[in-house]
């Protein structure tokens, strides 16, 4: 590892400590958000005194005339979340943790969660910034992939193991060739 990289990492850790330390919450409440920031995806954390999940929303701003764009990620951290509503059913394949294969299961198309506190980290790849704020609202709704991830992380908090139809239950079929796609 280069010394300059190590220095940058230490500066980043110091900035994280300053930002997340400014909120009146134990540091471990922010673990899911920090994992989402650094490795992507959705995460959950559960301890005797608190539970938290992170859920990502990703948007892309794309300029068709210049053929360039940037993603904008919003990572939501929900402290002590509860499910308020679920709507729709979507069959999807998922893999989690130590499980070796993906399984077919059903997730809600939309999910509404309430939490004691909600934080949002907004990452701009264009500006190379991470803006963190506490949301005024205590309720947030997710749809599509964000809803799938939120439902999955809520199951972790409830200590529910995902159980679905294993991938090897699927069968292969040959599609008729109709030329290039």
In short:
This protein is of the alpha+beta class and 181 residues long. The protein has helices spanning 3-21, 31-39, 145-157; strands spanning 43-46, 51-63, 68-79, 82-87, 90-94, 103-107, 110-114, 117-124, 129-134, 139-143, 165-166. The chain has one domain: Peptide Deformylase (Alpha-Beta Complex), CATH 3.90.45.
Descriptive account of the structure:
The protein has 181 residues and is of the alpha+beta class. It has one domain: Peptide Deformylase. It is 23% helix and 39% strand. The chain is built from 3 helices and 11 strands, in the order ααββββββββββαβ. It has helices at 3-21, 31-39, 145-157; strands spanning 43-46, 51-63, 68-79, 82-87, 90-94, 103-107, 110-114, 117-124, 129-134, 139-143, 165-166. Strands 1-2-3-8-9 form a 5-stranded antiparallel sheet. A 3-stranded antiparallel sheet has the order 4-7-10. A hairpin with a 4-residue loop joins β2 (51-63) and β3 (68-79). InterPro entries: Peptide_deformylase_sf.
